[in-house]
Amino acid sequence: MRGIIYDGTTSRLVEGIQVRDPGPREVIVEIGAAGLCHSDVSYMSGLYPVPSPGVCGHEGAGIVTTVGNAVTHVKPGDHVIIATLSSCGMCEYCASGRPTACRATLANWSQPFTFEGNPIFNFAATSAFVERTLVRDVQCVKIPDDVPLSSAAIVGCGVVTGMGAVFNRANVQRGQSAAVFGVGGVGLNVIQALRVQGATTIIAIDTVPEKESIARKFGATHFIDGKREDIVDAIAQICPSSATAPRGAFNSGGVNWAFDCVAHPTVTWNALESLDWEGTVVVIGVASQTAEFKGLYGRLTQVDRGIIGCRYGSISPHRDIPRIIEMYRRGDVLLDELVTAIHPIEKWQDAVHEMETGAVARGVLSFQ
Ligand SMILES: NC(=O)c1ccc[n+]([C@@H]2O[C@H](COP(=O)([O-])OP(=O)(O)OC[C@H]3O[C@@H](n4cnc5c(N)ncnc54)[C@H](O)[C@@H]3O)[C@@H](O)[C@H]2O)c1
Ligand SMILES: [Zn+2]
Ligand SMILES: [Zn+2]
Q1: What is the structure's pLDDT at 21?
Q2: Per-residue pLDDT for 134 more than 90?
Q3: Other Cβ atoms closer than 10 A to 145
Q4: Which secondary structure element, helix H or strand E, spans residue 351, and what is its range?
Q5: How many angstroms does the Cα of residue 328 sit away from the middle of ligand 2?
Q6: What is the pTM of this model?
Q7: Which residues line ligand 1 (CB under 6 A)?
């Protein structure tokens, strides 16, 4: 079958990948569509400390074709979103609804594929840029058949990462304010989750000015060009400390939450500088393992500001994904609008190019 393999240097579409049969608690999913997340581009660029050669992609949805003999919650023909969390279900983190902290969900790569007789790793326990993949049963979240697989696919990472950061990690309250740095597939979902939660000031920042219209469509109340030198001042003008001063003592004024969906030192600095007292930066973007950021101690200590990271929206897939799908079916959450381009798998490089130029919300690859 066809799929994209990253060999440690380059990525290419090949024909002839094979996947092994499922074990008792494993499932084969025929991929209907797979979103291109920025983490895929990072993996293909060698930024991630994971082994290769590997089959790329981790944001997928499809149809179950084969299940192991101990799988009970899905059957052949079911439509599923694949969650990347191959959680154990037994540890204290799984038991308390925090599978993103389950130790079984990191550094858990395996080699379910072969190509030209050689074993090939999966990526993020998923591998979605391939016609059929093998995942653990716990990773398959059943969805209604009428949800387009192209829209369902992006739920597998970008949607849950962005929305979960707001719902779970931050738990943003009605009436609060937020700045969202980076209006890509993740940032747009931060923005729409903020709208759902009832945040009243939602400031989107992106270096691509054309992102303004889609940011506003998803719920942004303001947009700031990310190339401006005075982003922090511009945010303080929108959320001033008082009627007469944008900034007050200990840098008061600014937003309650700043979501960093880029992970660049300048962005993280600006995010921290943009916070009001008690505000929190939530870092979602992924940088290289050795990249550093800096900030002023004085911003944190006296007035309860903080910086936290967020992995995969801190979600519990079987709780959060059905809720998001239900909100989509009610019209409260936009998914179809996130898919700005669907490319046949042969055109995968077009999707990468579009992401690098910032031209799309999300590009999706299709095997149909
Ligand atoms: N924490 C997690 O679990 C998790 C999950 C998925 C993705 N990610 C990471 O989140 C980040 C975003 O992913 P994505 O798929 O949305 O990427 P994307 O490429 O779709 O979007 C990134 C956006 O940031 C904008 N941007 C770039 N530099 C900027 C700057 N200096 N200021 C403002 N905007 C800027 C781009 O124009 C683009 O619109 C990536 O680093 C990705 O690896 C993290
Ligand atoms: Zn566990
Ligand atoms: Zn991702």
Answers
A1: 98
A2: yes
A3: 10
A4: helix 348-357
A5: 29
A6: 0.97
A7: 37-39, 42, 157-158, 161, 181-187, 205-208, 211, 226, 261-264, 267, 284-286, 310-312, 355, 358
